[in-house]
Description:
CATH architecture of the domain at 1-191: Alpha Horseshoe
Distance between the termini: 70 Å
Structural class: mainly alpha
Strand content: under 5%
Radius of gyration: 29 Å
Number of strands: 0
Amino acid sequence: MALNVVCQDRNDASWSETLAVLRAALRFGDPPLRGIAWFLSELRFADAFRWQSAGFGTVVDEAAWRRLLERCWAARTGEERGGAAFLLSGLCHWHPSQIAALGERTTLLSQWVEEVTEESAGGLGRLLNDVAQTEGGRDVVRAICAATDPHRIAAWLNAVTWSQAWSQGWLLGRIGYNATPAWRERLREDLDIAALQTLFSSAADAELGSLSELVEGIAEIDYELSLSLLDLAAPAIGGALSRSPVEGWKAAGQLILFFLRFYSPGLGIPPPTRQQRPIGKRIARAVDPVAVASDLSGSRRRDWPVYHELLIFLKSTMPTCAREVIDRVDLAALDRTIGGMWSGMPDELLRLVWAMFVAEGRGPGRVSEWVSSHAEEFTGVTPHLVQIAPTAAAVALRKGHRLHLDVGKGWGWNSALLAMVELENVDRQLAVKVLEDNQNDIAKGFASLREYDSIGVPYVLQILHKLVPKLVPTILDKIDPAIAEAHWAKRLQGKADERGAAAALIEAAFEGSDELAALATRLRRRFPRASTIPAPKA
Length: 538
């Protein structure tokens, strides 16, 4: 904060004096390299240095740069090399010749990697990661990795302990990503699989964060091996999620969501593979639903996004466990925490009740009844809330509150569709009014059609024709043809669901303006097969 105040404007009358003070801070008493790296990193957030290359020729002048490089190259201990690596990475933003200087020292830097310690691994990982993403830096990083002896890397990996696993796993991932296939194969030949299996079999709650980083690092060398090692640790992960669901998920959640791909559908992330899914099931099988329910009952607002992800994961891997959590949660205790939040319905609460609804089976039950009991408190309605408690949502809508279908960005179709189906079952006229109120948003969404959950678009068109047929041409006339052409053409070259959504919109476009109909004709000529809705099979 103080640095940002001091370094706001280069046109300030005292700018030259400010630079002099900052330069002196780099030199006076030769401060620790890690401290200088931190200082320069914080400076980058100041307004005067925020944009790319803005630091060149300012704080780190030629004399300071050469002195800092001299100190970095002289680093001997693990702690010194770690600080030096952080600083060498940071200097890329402060001197135009930094990448070239690193390119002249690839042999020395590869030696640092070979002789890595717990203190130096984090800095070296940052160096390889950041330099590879800097213009001209990828070749430098590849040269460092090529000069590194894979046998020595295997030696420190075979001896890694949990206290070293996070930083060395992070470094290993950066090496593996930038190394050649032949280099990775040489490393694999020297791995002590039994030692790694022993390590992963001994994982405990405190090691989950380190375990996650080490698994991802090993995956860059041998993906199949990383899965087999993670499988050994599955019971420990499930046990940690039972003993402390929130802390356990913070440590292992990213691994489960992205490495094993147990993420909510509709975000373009491929589903778990045949190798990944059994590991997720073994983790879930080790989760105690009674313990999770007890912790959820006493949870706080800050915990609810975590519970959203955890419950969705349990539902996708072990539905009986997810259902038992909901059966045993103390809703009265949760209500005491929620208090008056039902009226404003913050995102954290909505995500929690949605996950609980999904975990219970997405139908009438405890969660639906619980949410419905607060119908008089609602001051807003969302598509998810309509699905959870359609009758309660109707009460709020009759009071004049709005339901925003939230499809204007080109996605959200499935949620909107299901909400409209539920609302129609409760009150058809309310459903009609919601569609009329959202016509501009629907038109924008149709024009900017995205790949996410596009499977719902043909069904949205069907419900529009069913409930508000006279409104359909009006919505189509609101579509911007230029925006639609760009997005629809992309979808016609995408997956089956995308092609089907675009084809349905092209078919409907002939009901719209002449300009939109002309667009539909052009796209059918460009994509004759993809843009045509297949005739139903006899």
